[in-house]
Structures are given as structure tokens and as C-alpha cells.
Amino acid sequence: MTETVQIVFSAETEIGQFNDALHIPADEYAAMTADQIAALKQTRVDAWVAAVKLASANTETIE
Amino acid sequence: MANRFWVGGGSSSNWNATGNTNWGTVSNTQDNAAVPTAADDVFFDGVGTGAADCVLSTTAPCRSLNCTGYANTLTISGQALNIGDATAGAGSIALKFAAGMTLTKDSSASINLISTSGTEQTIDTGGKNCPSFAVTGTGSNYKPVATINITGGAWTYSASGATWTINGQTIDMALSNASNRTFAGGGKTYALLTSAITNAVLTISGANTFSDITTTSNTSKVVAVVLAADQIVTGTLSITGNSVVARTHIRSSVSGTARTITAATVTLSNVDLQDITGAGAGSWNLAAITGNSGDCGGNSGITFTTPAAQASTGTASFTWSTHGWTSRVPLPQDDVTIANAFVASQTITADMPRMGKNITFVGATGTPTWSPNTDVSVYGSWTLIAGMAIGAVTQNLTFAGRGSSTITNAGLSYGTITPVVDCGAGTYTLNDAILTGNKSINFTSGTFTANGFNVTAASAGITNVATVVINMGSGTWTFTGSGNAWNMNGSANPTINADTSTLVFSSTSAPVFLGGAGRSYNKVKFTGAGVGIATISTNSITINELEVTAPRPFRLSAGITLTVGRFVPLSSAGNIITMDTTGAAATITSSFYMHQLDYLSLTNITAAGTSKWYAGIHSTNVSGNTGWQLNAGTTAFNDAGKMSLVA
After folding, report:
1. ipTM field
2. Residues B536 and B555 placed together within one structural domain of the fold
3. Could you give the CA distance from residue B411 to residue A27 in angstroms, rounded to a whole number?
């Protein structure tokens, strides 16, 4: 079983607070820099903001 | 009461044709008798002009229907035949189809036995494949004298104070082509219930007693026998799944609510069981039955096939049911590891509805795509990785594990897949944020703990069939859809622990918050750039802080009372918020010491509670508002230094 490291993070965005976590295999984590981890976090944040904006503009009505 | 003979000669071949009718007062006599009423005994004897086809073109009553001698076609597609009144049919026959006749029906046709006579009446189907049957007559007394074949139909027995004598007759309700049907036995005693199930679900309701139950299935992977109550089988319970990959799912109708099957003999193969208690003299040791036995949780009194961890192999795409796993296609109790070193652009097709227990993709490389082609369930933890994708398919992914399980989403969006939490007494805890595309996240049973992470979906569907507990945590719950974006209307059971969460409705269209009466929420925000009306439709909910962003109109359903800690309308000059109701006045009440609002347009809003409600000098008092701080009906400043409504 591959061990993973959980990195919990939170970010304030224009659409609200985003709380998430990274799960990185332990061997990969050991080789990563702080900037690389920060970049992964930012990718998650950006993806969430984009996803919410896109879906919020969808006017399909929920039954 | 009278006799009515089908004699033909009517203006059409319809049962209810008039001018002329097809009915005679005696056999083979076209005397234009009236169309039968519920007091009439009806005969199709096939004599002379009576040898004519008949079409039931509308719901038709009669006291009894006797087709002895009839060799033509009776069509009752899409219609109901209501048989019975307060007296027994002629010769104590309620229904008799002739072996030589043709009976044409469809899936919406029905024969309703509604007699209230206590005299025993017989049901003789003549071996015909009949429409759905419903026995509803209070105090009725029926006895079948032939097999009741209702292929594709349903059986409903709901007669109270009635006598039912099964007389050793089989009820055959084979199902096909996704026509799910219910055998609602009404708690009566039956002989053999047999069903050849093709791509469908058979539900048995009522705490019934059978001499035997026998089902078989085709190669469909979604065949299920669902129990809505305990069942007793005095003979043999025989449920035969088709193969190790086309397994019959025997389960309770409610996750977490066990159903007991008491059987003298148990003969099962290729089955998975969920929320079933095995009882009776039969052996419930299913460890080594043909095709093994799947344990979906919630079972007792049953010995299942020993779990065996399954791992996938290879570098290429594979399909769940045909892959060469460690030792077998995973059973619901088997842990599943997919850690292959895939080459690029490979797809894992999940075609088994019950994929396994703890399922992990940790260790996989090559960015494979997991793509279900049917609704699928996982019976333990679910662990995705960032280096994979989810197929753009429209299916449900149900988290069905009992005990404590986790969900790790790794930043992936479920896209068009609908996550469903339906885990009975189990608990699912997020290990990170969860995100769907334009689909709902549904809570059907069990406990869901957000664990501080975000939840994002088009909507939330929360049912009250079983116990549901939602621990919202400290994260942001964002619902992007319009319409019932949080849908807990009428749900008495679910428990909402709002914690310190923020619930955001972000649709630019018109989101509706059906919060469930009596529930409390922490922060609720209606954001979004559009001007669709945001609506709170549920009475008696409490929101610690309610925020509405202009220019979004804000509406309360007529007559409801909304309790808020603070109401925060984010309005400004040129950017007002219209606040009204769907009709009559609604109340917003608060104990916060003072609400200093402005730039509102108010209609039928009652401000209440110990809070002082100042609407502001730039607000418009349209009509029907009460409880707001007014200064003698003028626009002058009030004592609190705030302008009041324009009266």
C-alpha cells in the first residue's frame, strides 16, 4: 500500500472560502518543494472557482 | 342486477359502444342492451354473433366476467376492468378467462377485484397472461383456481377484512425490460411466487407467507429482489442469479433497515445481499454457493464468502466484469486496488453495479479514466488520485458502506456523475473537497461528515426514507443550480448539523432553498451575478446569518416564518434588493438588537422579534409590510438616527 501525505489547506477566494486537502504519495512529497506544493494548492483553488462560476451561470432548473 | 352477453353488432367493437351497443340480455341476441354496470354479470360465450372481438376503451365495471366459450380477442390495453359489487358474481365466479380466447393487454392495464361480498368467488385466468391485478374489495373473499400469470404486471392486495384462499395456485409475475414491478401481498398467504426477471427489479411488500419463492434472472447486472417487509417461506426460497457477473441483488427497500427472510430451505446462487436477516430452518451458510455470496452490509444470520482483496493488472484499459483480478471479479466485501502502470489514454470501465468494498487508485500511473456505464456502489472507502480522470457519463455513484468510511476525491470533479450517500447506519467522512459538475449530491441514508472541507454541487437532494445525518462542518457548501438547489422539502427525518458552515447559492438564475422545517443553518448566502429570484420556501427554519447580494430579488413563501440571527442584504444605491413573498405576508424574525438596512423594496414582509428593523430611507414600502420602524408615516429621521420606510 502506497502511503500518502494529507495536506489540508484553506484559501479565501472571490466566491468564498475554499477548504480542501492534497493527498500526495509519501515518496513524491519528500521530493517536493514548498513552491510545488503551493502551486498544487493554487491549481485546486483556481479549478474550484472556475467550476463554480461556470456551473452558476448554467440556468438549467433542478427538479 | 342483470346478465349482459357480448353479442356484437355495436357501433364499434368497444365495450362501451352505444347506438348500438354490443350487449344482449341473453346469449346471441342483439337486443341493444345497456352497457354493463357494476351490478351486471358479463358473459363472453362466443355463441353466434358473440364470436366477436372486444376492446375495452375505457374503465369498465361489471359484477363478474365469465368468458367460458369465448375464442376471440379481448383487449384491455391501457384500461382498468373493475369487477365486483356487494354481491357475488353468478355462480360465485368473479373472473373466468377461457383457454381458447386471446387476451391482449399492456403494462398499464389492470384488473381490479373490488367486490365487497363475503361469499367466496373464484378467479380463473385460463392460463392467460393477465394485466396487473389489484384486490381491493373490503370484506371480499377470493380464491384463484388457476395460476395467475401477470407477466410484466404488478400484484396488489390491499383488501381489508378480507379472505384470501390461495388454493395452491402459483403467481407468476415475470418481469422484463426495466419494467420494475411490485408484488404487494398485503400480508397474506400465497403458494409459489415465481418470477423470471429480465433487466428489472421485483419488489415484494407486505409481510407475506409463501410456500415457495423462485426467481431467475437474465444476464442483466441490475436484477434485484427488493423486500419492503419481512417474508416467510415455508418451503424453498430459490433465487438464482445468472452468473458471477450478473448477480441478483437481494436487499431491503430501505438501506439500514433489515428485512428478515424466514425460510425452510434456502437455495441461492450468484447473489449479493444487503440488509437481510437470514432465519428459519434453512441453511444461510452461503460461503460456497455457486457464484459466491456478496455481502453488501447490514446482514445478519448469514455466512458469506470470505473477503479476498482484488488487484487489477496490466497497462491497458479494462472492464470491471471481465478483468483478470487477483482471484475473482470483486464481490462487495472485497477490497479493490487499482495501482496499474497504465499506458496513456486508458479507461477503466465499471460495469459491475457493486464494485467492491474499499476501492483505491493510489499507485496508479498513466492518468487512467474511471468510467462507469451503470449506476455503481462502493461498500467502503473510495480513494481517487489526482493523476486520473472521471468519465463524462451520467450515472450514480453510491457510497453504501456500513461502519466508517472515507471519500478522497483528489481534486477531481464528478462531472455528470451523481454522488449518493446511502449507507444505512454507516458514516462517510470527506478526506478533501467534493465537487460535481451540473449534478446533484444526494443524501438518502446514513451519516455524511464534511470534515471541514468544501462541498460543491448543482443541488442537494435529501430524503427522509431512512435516517440521514449531515455534519456540515466548517467548509463552504456551494450549490450552483437553479430551482430546488437545497431540497429537503417535507423531510421530517434528516438531521442537519450546520456547525460553522457557509451555505452558498450561487446560481445566476433562481435558486430555491427548501431547508426543512425546524432545521437550523449557520451562514446562508445568495450570491451570483444574475437577477433570478432567490427563494426560501420552508417554514420555521433558522439561519444564523442570512446574506443576499444585490441585485438579486429575495422572496419568502407566503405565510412562512424565517428566523435569522442577522439579515445582511448587500444592497446599495442603484443596486436595490426587492424582497417580497409568493402571496400573503411572510415573517422574518430576529433577536439581533438592530437591523439597519437600506436600499430595499419591500412587499408583504412582516418584521418581528426583539430586533428593531430599520429599512432605511432609500427603501420603498410597496405594501403589506408591518413591524418596520416608521416615524408617523413620514420619511423623517427616526430617533435611532436612521431613516424609516417611505410610508
Report:
1. 0.95
2. no
3. 20
Q: Which helix (H) or strand (E) holds A56?
A: helix A34-56
CA B180/CA B190 separation, integer angstroms: 21
pLDDT number for residue A2: 72
Measured between beta carbons, the chain B residues lying within 8 angstroms of A28 are none
Q: Are residues B148 and B246 in the same domain?
A: no
- In the listed set B287, B306, B325, which residue is the last one of a domain according to the structure? B306
pLDDT digits (tens, 9 = 90+) for B335-355: 999 999 999 999 999 999 999
Please give the residue of chain A at the shortest CA–CA distance from B434: A20
Query: Do the chains contact at A60 and B482, CB–CB below 8 Å?
Result: yes
Q: Are residues B14 and B160 in the same domain?
A: yes
Q: Do A20 and B433 touch (CB under 8 A)?
A: yes
Contacts of B453 in chain A (CB under 8 A): 19-21
Bridge partner residues of B110 (DSSP) = B80, B132
pTM: 0.93
- For chain B, how many structural domains are there in total? 4
Span B572-584, pLDDT tens digits: 999 999 999 999 9
pLDDT at B348 (0 to 100): 98
The angle formed by the CA atoms of residues A49, A54 and A60, to the nearest 5 degrees, is: 140
B438: which chain A residues are within 8 Å (Cβ-Cβ)? 55, 58, 60
| Confidence at B293, pLDDT banded by 50, 70, 90 | very high
Q: Give me the number of domains chain A comprises.
A: 1
The 3-class secondary structure across B273-323, one letter per residue, is: EECEEEECCCCCECCCCCCCEEECCCCECCECCCCCCEECCCCCCEECCCC
- Same structural domain for residues B446 and B470? yes
Residues of B with Cβ-Cβ distance to A22 under 8 angstroms: 386, 411, 432
Domain boundary (B542, B563, B585) is at B542
Question: B587 lies in which domain range?
Answer: 550-647
Nearest to B545 by CA among B527, B561, B565: B565
Q: Does A61 map to a domain?
A: no
Residue of A nearest to B505 (CA): A56
Whole-number average pLDDT of chain B: 93
Q: Do B7 and B147 have their domain in common?
A: yes
CB within 8 Å: A62 and B480: no
pLDDT value at B65 more than 80: yes
Query: Does one domain contain both B317 and B462?
Result: yes
- On whether residue A30 sits in a domain, the answer given is yes
CA distance B326 to chain A (A): 16
B359 and B335 assigned to the same domain: yes
In a domain, residue A63? The reply is no
Interface test with A, best of B506, B525, B527 (most A CBs within 10 A): B506
Interchain CB distance below 8 Å, B454 and A15? no
Percent of chain B with pLDDT over 70: 96
pLDDT value, residue B417: 97
Q: Are residues B579 and B615 in the same domain?
A: yes
Residue B543: pLDDT band with limits 50, 70, 90 = very high
Answer yes or no: is pLDDT of B632 > 70: no
**Å between A34 CA and nearest CA of chain B:** 18
**How far apart are the CA of A30 and the nearest CA of chain B, in angstroms?**
16
